Each structure stands twice: as structure tokens, then as C-alpha cells.
Amino acid sequence: MALESPIAxxxxxxxxxxxGQLFLDPAAARHCDKACTEYLSTLETNKDxxxxxxxxxxxxxxxxxxxxxRKFSQKAVxxxxxxxxxxxxxxxxxxxxxxxxxxxxxxxxxxxEHNATSIGQHGPR
Length: 125
Description:
The protein is an all-alpha fold. The protein is built from four helices and no strands.
């Protein structure tokens, strides 16, 4: 059996949350959301820095130096399994995680707001 991708896994959790099959305390979800926001910032910063590694210089003028500089440049940007693409895949997963966490406190806020509005219009029951 093939393993599902991390994105598919988190999308499955999002579906379970929407269907009422997954529960998380809203306060815990907020902490997870905050951690995701902080980690996304770090990943984005590192991705921006990785782009700067895409043009390696200083390996000399011999063919071997030029080939080595090209190889290092492609490990950063554009080559197979390069750093920029790997960081983007992590960004995509953390964004999917954050969407799941937000379902728990955004939903709770919506329910609270609805209840407050209902009480304001009809009084407590």
C-alpha cells in the first residue's frame, strides 16, 4: 500500500474536521496555528535566501570548477530535489496543517458569535 502524501493526509484531517469526526480544543488549535505562522515565516525567509544561492561563483575558470559551480547552483534552485522546491513543499504542508487548526477556533468563534447574537435578540433561554 502506497503512503499518502503529507498534503493528502492533512486534507483528510480537514475533511474529518468538517464532518465532525475530528475534535481539537480551540485554545490548543490557536497555539498550533501560531506555531505554523512562525514556522511559515522561517521557511519563507529560508526560501528567499536559497534563491540567492542559485548563482554560485568563485570556483575558478577550469571546466571542473565551472561544472561544480553549476552543480551547487542547481542544488539550490532549478535542479532535481533543489532547496527552493523542498522548502516550498514544506510551506505547502504547513499551510495545509494551519488550515486544519484554524477550523477549530474559527468555528468556535462563529458559534460564539451566533450564540451571542441569538441571546441579544431573544434573551437567554
